Amino acid sequence: MDHSLPSQIRRELLDLRRRALIRCPETTDSAAGKTTVVNGRQIRVFCSNNYLDLANDPQVLTALGDGLSRWGWGSAASRLICGTTTAHISLEQQLAQFKRCQAAVLFPTGYMANLGLLTALAGSRDVLLIDKLCHASIIDAARASRATTRFFPHNDIKRLADLLQRYTQARRICIITEGIFSMDGDFAHLPEIIPLKNKYRALLIVDDAHGTGVLGEHGRGTAELLDVEEHIDVTVATLSKAFGSLGGFVCCSAELAEYLRNRSRSYIYTTAAPPVVCLAAAAALEVIQHQPRRRENLQAVAKKLRHDLRRAGFELGSAEAHIIPIMLGRAELALQFSHLLWQRGFMIPAIRQPSVPRGKARLRISLMSSHSPRDIDDLVQALICVARELGLLSHPSQP
Ligand SMILES: Cc1ncc(COP(=O)(O)O)c(C=O)c1O
Among 10, 53, 273, 276, which one is most buried in terms of CB atoms within 10 A? Predict the structure, then answer.
């Protein structure tokens, strides 16, 4: 046994504590909703990815209950052995129809979808050009692929063009971006990226984990909102956010789907999602398609919050939707702000390095369709009070 390991780990933990980077999440004791219970205390949640309130929706729960008696719980094997059921196939067909693509390939999580996609698509002769603010699952997938990986500054189209020009000799070149960015709440500049990807014959991959179900008139995501759907080559999405479930999927051509089913190691070498998870996701998809009011409510309260916070003097970066960061800078400050909010009954954890770049710590507010204008007023009031307490708002005004 290597006895030096424990002391090195202890030192790293101490260092994380010293730099206010240690993570100690609160333990909740209730179903996901806009309130939760922690140590017997009711807390208001403004940090959930359960954007459309589907994690505990009666229609979804009924599908789960009915499904359990028909299917049982476990899937018993990986997809390629005997874990593919009609529930999996039916969900994949419904997701493909919803996203207007030829095929959808389901993975147990969104993380695994990115991993399976990029490691199957790219190897040492290929180049991946990735927006610098992309999610860790994309970065890990790029590393695992062994492709040449270059990061362009966030939404910097000029730098992307330079990189495309530099790697014209690559076997395959992929541009990878999020649709709506998970920690910043702004959109990829897809209308500017598309002419470039056409010019350089690159493959455009959009991870729309946080836009799918939520953005666009029909909830098809950021590309629908920006009216560029037919130009996106591959979309990655999750069932874990707006769908309120668990899982990830890749939307692509039928041919690429067949390739992924034969080449994606995170699809092949893992147990299939339980069939009831597919039934829950299918029920959530029904709601997404037939209850646009949820999206409308969500965007209405998000618009109000952005407006009220900017008017009060908070720095929100270029947030444009239901993910709204309050930029604070230092990790210690973000942690202190979060702690004071917690004392007032609001749950918004501090987001710090490595989830965001060093010096860019923030509170990441995310809203749900069940939040009301009154909820927003209460939150803004609490944020203003804490900001004043910390001396952050020099001339605070009431919303
Ligand atoms: C942009 C993005 N992609 C992928 C994922 C991974 O999705 P999942 O939680 O389903 O593994 C996340 C999760 O936070 C994400 O924000």
Answer: 273
Q: Judge if 269 and 322 occupy the same domain.
A: no
**Mean pLDDT in order along the chain per 10 residues (399 residues):** 76 91 89 94 97 98 96 96 98 98 98 98 97 98 98 98 96 98 98 98 98 98 98 98 98 98 98 98 98 98 98 96 97 96 97 94 98 98 97 65
Q: What is the number of domains present in the chain? A: 2
Q: Is the pTM of this model over 0.90?
A: yes
Please state the atom number of ligand 1 nearest to the C-alpha of residue 248: 10
Please give the number of the atom of ligand 1 that sits closest to the Cα of 178.
1
Q: Does the beta carbon of 110 sit less than 6 angstroms from any atom of ligand 1?
A: yes
Residue 210 and residue 302 share a domain: no
CA dihedral 113, 114, 119, 120 (to 10 degrees): 50
The CATH number for 24's domain is 3.90.1150.10
Beta-carbon contacts of 103 under 8 Å, excluding residues fewer than 6 positions away, are 92, 96, 251, 252, 253, 254, 256, 257, 258
Distance 215 CA to ligand 1 centre (A): 16
Does the Cβ of 109 fall within 6 Å of ligand 1? Answer: yes
Last residue of a domain, one of 235, 261, 290: 290
| Distance from residue 355's CA to the centre of ligand 1 (Å) | 12
What's the burial of 90, exposed, middle or buried (CB within 10 Å: 0-12/13-18/19+)? middle
Q: Do 224 and 157 share a domain, yes or no?
A: yes
